[in-house]
Amino acid sequence: MIEIVDIKKKFGEQLVLKGVSASFEAGKCNLIIGKSGSGKTVTLKCLVGLFTPDEGAILFDGRNFTAMDFLQKQVVRQEFGMLFQGTALFDSLTVEQNIKFPLDMFSNMTEPEKIERVNFCLQRVAMVNTNKKFPGELSGGMKKRVGIARAIVNNPKYLFCDEPNSGLDPKTSLVIDQLIKEITIEFQMTTVINTHDMNSVMGIGDKVLFLHEGRKYWEGTNAEIMQITEGELFDFIFASDFLKDLRRRAKY
Amino acid sequence: MLKIFTSFGEYLLLMKGIFAKPEKGRMYWLETMRQCAQIGVGSLPIIAIISLFIGAVTAVQFSYQLRSISLVPMWWMGSIVRKSMILELAPTLTALLIAGKVGSNIASELGTMRISEQIDAYEIMGVNTKSYLIGPKIFASMVMIPMLVVLSVFLGILGGWLAGLLGGFYSSSEYARGVTDAFKGYDIFIMFVKAFLFAYIISSISCYKGYLVEGGAVEIGVASTEAVVMSSIVVIVVNFVVAFLLL
Ligand SMILES: Nc1ncnc2c1ncn2[C@@H]1O[C@H](COP(=O)(O)OP(=O)(O)OP(=O)(O)O)[C@@H](O)[C@H]1O
Ligand SMILES: [Mg+2]
Q: What order do you get walking across the sheet with A2-11 strand by strand?
């Protein structure tokens, strides 16, 4: 479980996060949604420690991450997996070396054990036999899968995904969403996903956090979100007049 | 002016960050070996060609000047070429070439990793990116560049010999006498002082420029140009300071 307690983050004079609190549970896909510029990426980067919040705390199963020094953070980070928006695969390494890297750096496994684990993860994301390829030789969707494989190779307790669907066609998006959902349940990870894709919200949003201008505006499940009939969230979900109209008619 | 101080502060903080206990020694070792191969082997051909010709040109020019002064025996040429190569030409030229080649390479590699979030990816895995990405580059430079300088000295002397024979300025035995005459260990000491300093300057400045890139492809280009320009200038200034203080 991850708890965010009233975090604030400033860039220069601009207060980007104006006090956000939330908690994310294990075995669930926790979604952070919101308009472009609402602070989703900043929130996620605060969670993983790439940004330090100016105020507030972030707790990983009770451990206060914000108060830790670099070495203590390093230990917690070994329980992190992250899928980056641009995948951030190491382009000088092969697919296999990419996925194996966290094991090489932090585990005491033997080489055959590592390879076995890598192959298991590759199989999990349906990318068998791509071991020797370089990231440059893969399509966007394939890179995302390899990114997921790398994120889960060290059995993380916490999985973070920044816009897992950006740049993917709707069908591939669904596949990636399902994959994330399955592994979240299978390994009981606490998964936090940044997205503005309503398909993901409806498909995998066990818990949804709607950010608006740096504040938590709404919190609930994907079932509850459809009950919304007005306000910023309504505008966000039914972005076009056409959709709004459709929604109003469906009500009657 | 303030910007220079903040940059220097950032640079010092970055350098301080390198000193951390490696998460896994073997991985750091492998990365260092990879960097050594890239820096050393990659720069070998260009250093070899340039040193050979610089030695040759030194021999030709000094012979041309000394021939008019008949008081100076031609066998001195050997020691002139040797001294010039060891004290000045080999370290400085190697450093400038490396600044252009390896400096821009390092800055754009780290810059690309920064922009494409690869550095963030390492960071989130729990890797200390300052020590893992920068440490091996600086260490490998400080191992390989002095070796390249030594090689450059030998090839420069070889170049001088060939040029002399070709132009008929002196015989092989005369040249050999000059090369071995009044040999001073202190010169070698100066050469290594320069080589180590230059290696550190080039690699650390380039890492600094690349590691802290913000923005996109344009900024990566700017960073790698700045890395080359800045390390070349610092090399030349430090070269003067070392000569001034130690000679
Ligand atoms: N490194 C930074 N320095 C300064 N300002 C920043 C930085 N990162 C983000 N911001 C600002 O914080 C605000 C929120 O940005 P953020 O990237 O979190 O938005 P987002 O919700 O992820 O949007 P998108 O859906 O477009 O990715 C923006 O106004 C942005 O300008
Ligand atoms: Mg974002």
A: A14-24, A2-11, A55-60, A63-64
